Amino acid sequence: MNQSLREILVTGLTLDPQKLRPDVHLEEAGLDSLAIAELGLLLHERTGVAIGEDVLSSAVTLGALDQLVEERLAGR
Prior knowledge:
This protein is mainly alpha-helical. The protein is built from five helices and no strands.
């Protein structure tokens, strides 16, 4: 998992690091719609990359979310 994303999920959103596996669904990890919105803000603040809430919520699993973030960071 991307280190920036992992840090935001654990320290910024206080998610359980034990639940951060690629096959875990966003809801199971603790990412509800409010947390997704906050994730978008934190990603922008810490990486400079803006990813819309609708795009972030289109990822079903943490693995898909990680891939999405990696692609956006690579395309800065």
